[in-house]
Specification:
Radius of gyration: 24 Å
Number of domains: 1
Strand content: 5-15%
Distance between the termini: 18 Å
Strand order of the largest sheet: 1-2
Number of helices: 4
Order of helices and strands: EEHHHH
Structural class: mainly alpha
Shape: elongated
Number of strands: 2
């Protein structure tokens, strides 16, 4: 939080400046961070669920109607559909927990930290989810008799995907750390 929004208040007893927090501005900033995190989390969850279900069903359909079914593609489609179901379950659980936070400044800050923690968790989970998906894809390509160069190209693409997902993951971690720092500062100011 920006403590630049603090205002100077004069102690009338000894004419020394003391500093106070503009609580309304601070609460508005916390609400803004919470709403931004909630929006990003909702969009991310819905996209991940739709992409995993859509891709899993598409791969399953293609594999069912092809001449020679590939066992790795069946495993890939099952993995993606299961990933979507896990994400859906996590989304439902997360949305049920909303009511446990009070609507005070500290309650909204705790809620924002909870959303940020969930966002970091989902980001890490989906980052590691690239590994089994990539493994099934590469094994499927090799099993179908395609070129080893195609499998190598896919491997390079998957390594780049893991790298760039790490960049995104670090953004989520820094947002969470910023909220936790604000909570620590508030705790020390009131103590």
């Amino acid at each position: 939080m920006e403590f630049e929004e603090m205002k100077k208040v004069w102690d009338s007893q000894n004419d020394e400046p003391i500093y106070g927090i503009n609580e309304k501005a601070l609460h508005n900033r916390i609400l803004s961070k919470k709403n931004q995190g909630n929006h990003i989390t909702n969009v991310s969850e819905l996209l991940l669920i739709l992409v995993n279900i859509g891709s899993g069903c598409f791969i399953l359909g293609i594999n069912l109607f092809s001449q020679n079914g590939n066992v790795f593609m069946y495993l890939l489609s099952a993995w993606m559909i299961c990933s979507a179901l896990v994400l859906l379950y996590s989304r439902i659980r997360r949305r049920k927990k909303v009511d446990r936070f009070d609507r005070s400044m500290r309650g909204d800050l705790s809620h924002a930290i909870s959303i940020a923690t969930y966002q970091v968790h989902i980001s890490q989970l989906m980052r590691w989810n690239i590994v089994p998906i990539g493994l099934f894809i590469i094994l499927g390509v090799l099993d179908s008799g395609k070129s080893v160069w195609l499998a190598l190209g896919m491997l390079i693409f998957l390594v780049l995907t893991i790298y760039f997902s790490g960049w995104e993951h670090r953004i989520y971690k820094s947002r969470k750390r910023e909220l936790q720092l604000l909570q620590t500062r508030l705790d020390t100011e009131t103590a």
